[in-house]
Structures are given as C-alpha cells and as structure tokens.
Amino acid sequence: MSRVFVAGAGSWGTALGVLLAREGHEVRLWMRSPDKAEAVAEAGENEAYLPGVPLPDLLTPSSDLVDVAGSDACLFVVPAQHARHWMEELRQASSEAALPVALCSKGLERSTLMPMHEVLAEAWPEARGAVLSGPSFAADVARGLPTAVTLACESQAERERWLSLVSAANFRLYASDDPFGAEIGGAVKNVLAIACGIAIGKGFGESAKAALIARGFAELQRFGLAMGAKQETLSGLSGLGDLVLTANSPQSRNFSLGLALGQGAEPAAYLRSQRSVAEGAATARPLTEKARAAGVEMPICEGVAAIVEGRDGVDETIAKLMNRPLRAEGAGKS
Ligand SMILES: NC(=O)C1=CN([C@@H]2O[C@H](COP(=O)(O)OP(=O)(O)OC[C@H]3O[C@@H](n4cnc5c(N)ncnc54)[C@H](O)[C@@H]3O)[C@@H](O)[C@H]2O)C=CC1
Ligand SMILES: O=C(CO)COP(=O)(O)O
C-alpha cells in the first residue's frame, strides 16, 4: 500500500483518488477550501464534481498541502492555468522533496506557452515528473468501466513503479518513454474537440466532423513532430485515442463548449457559466502561437482560438477554412 497525494479535487482528481483508494492505497484528495473538504468528507461524496460516486474509506479529503510531505507519490490534477502556483506551493510543502509527480492536466500555460512538464521543471525542479494521459472520462473511470491510458516518463524504473501503483483491474496503463508526446496529444485534442462540437452545433453533420477529426489529427501530428514528440505516441492512446473520444462525445466539456458556440452562445459568457474547466479554450492561443513560432500551420486550431477569444465569428472562421488553397493530403508542413 502506498500513500498518494492527489492535488486537485475536480472530477478527474476525484475519480483517480477513488480508483487508487479502491485498490488499497491511502489517498489524500486535496482541494483549496477547508469548508469544501469538510463538506465532501461529511457527504462521503464530491457532489459538485463527481456526484453519485461514494468515496472509499481510504480516501481522505484535505485542504492541507503539508499532507504531501509524507506521500510516496503525487498525482497533479489542477487545471493547467493554475498549475504553476500550486506546484510552487507543493514544492514548499514537501520540503522540496524529489517526489514522483504524475501530471494529469491537459493544457499549455498561456503566459509561457509551456506544457505542464516544463512548468513543473521550473516550479518544482526536484519533482520527478511523469505524464498520465489518454482517453478517460472521469465518470467512466469512477464507474469502473474498462479504460486504457498512457503513462509516460523517461526513466524505466520510474515507469515501472507508476505502472504498478496506478494500474487497476479495469484501468490499464501502457508505458511510454515520451512524456512530451503524451502531453501534446492531450493539449491539442481539447482544442480540436471544440472545433468538432462547433460543427455539430452548427448542424453540419457527421461527415464534417469526421473531416475535422482527420485534418485536426494532421495538425496534431505536424505540431507534435515539430516539437520532438514521437509518432507512435501521437497515434497512440494519449493522441489519436483521446482525440477520438473527446471529439465525439457531449460528455466532453470541450466538445460541449463547441456545441454551445455552434448554436450561437457567446464564448466568454458560456465559459463564465461553467463550473468545470474546458482546457481547450485557454490552450488554443498558446498552442497556435507556439506553432507559428515553429513554422507549423494549424488552421483548425487557429480558427478555434479566434472564436473562443471573440476575435472572429463562427461563420467567418468556417468560410476561411473552406477557402484555403487546395493542397495534397497528409500531415506534411501545412
Ligand atoms: N474530467 C475528466 O474526465 C478529465 C480531466 N482531465 C484534466 O484534468 C484537469 C482537471 O480537470 P477536472 O478534474 O476535470 O476539473 P473540473 O472541471 O471537474 O473542476 C475544476 C477544478 O479546478 C479547480 N480550480 C478552479 N480554480 C482553481 C485555482 N485557481 N486553483 C486550483 N484549482 C482550481 C476547482 O476547484 C475544481 O476542482 C484538466 O486539465 C483536465 O483537462 C484529464 C482527463 C480526464
Ligand atoms: O480529457 C478528457 C477525456 O480523456 C476529458 O475531456 P473534457 O475535458 O473535454 O471533458
């Protein structure tokens, strides 16, 4: 039995905490508010983020960051735009310990354009980072439905430790030595899922969505390869696998955001009305800035960035995409 600190008690942090506690690990599920931690403990359930899932006895809700100090491992599940601050806090609370930290958040930091493992390297340099990513809706994992995801880190010994810690009967981990590639897939697919939601919200139908998935995947590969990710990672669970899941289901917050935008919702107002995070909204711009700096074209992601930031309307963006010069298919340069 290990002691695991789960930083972030949204739906995914709670589902992962429940999974580990069911496997016999002692879990501290950290959230910012002491009142909320008390209410969750009393209810025996995280009603706000994962309703209907009883918390196992081995899971203790906590608002105390110092609990990280005695832990064997940390799952980091705080939304990407708040990650740096909480990594710095965890570093202090853990006495700068070289704790194994699995990054489970999917996004790029807006102010620096960095993926989470680069943020971790700056904010908590002693931590030993890994990436846990793949097609996995929190509600599915919490219900014990069969799920497979990627666990990526450079050290083989660390990978093996993570695999034995986090694998469970219906939660299958595949090992990868490409943490950067695993992160890129998760960050980009959220932006593409918004595009697919928009297509459905506009009433364009399944054929249009399939075209967006295929051309979006070409963008994901172009960008990932230019950044040094491995092709096998991009076409694996954390890339193509998660794109297929997220781009096809209203269970996805990113897809649902797109659906609402396609039906005429105003981006900022819609985002303000949501308790849950749709990471693609904040990641779209840093992603496209990073791509442009690397000379990689990502027209679908550019369109999403313009729409969610209110710089362009849905109809204008679609017209621009459809009027691009005709070209050969393939991931290529553009
Ligand atoms: N929900 C899912 O099925 C999955 C989510 N993820 C990723 O996990 C990460 C967390 O998402 P969810 O657990 O779904 O969150 P959520 O959308 O269920 O809840 C948002 C969480 O963010 C917290 N939060 C808001 N402002 C904050 C701040 N300033 N500092 C710290 N925390 C703050 C809220 O308290 C809440 O716990 C995201 O990067 C998401 O992409 C990854 C795989 C699956
Ligand atoms: O990352 C996810 C599933 O793998 C969850 O997707 P959403 O954040 O769009 O709900």
From TrEMBL:
Residue stretches making up the Glycerol-3-phosphate dehydrogenase NAD-dependent N-terminal domain: 4-157
Entries under Gene3D superfamilies matching the protein: N-(1-d-carboxylethyl)-l-norvaline Dehydrogenase, domain 2, NAD(P)-binding Rossmann-like Domain
Top-level taxon of origin: Bacteria
Record GO terms (molecular function): glycerol-3-phosphate dehydrogenase [NAD(P)+] activity; NAD binding
Amino-acid positions noted as binding sn-glycerol 3-phosphate in the UniProt annotation, renumbered to this chain: 106, 134, 136, 189, 242, 252-254
UniProt similarity note: Belongs to the NAD-dependent glycerol-3-phosphate dehydrogenase family.
Protein name (record): Glycerol-3-phosphate dehydrogenase [NAD(P)+]
Source organism of the structure: Parvularcula maris
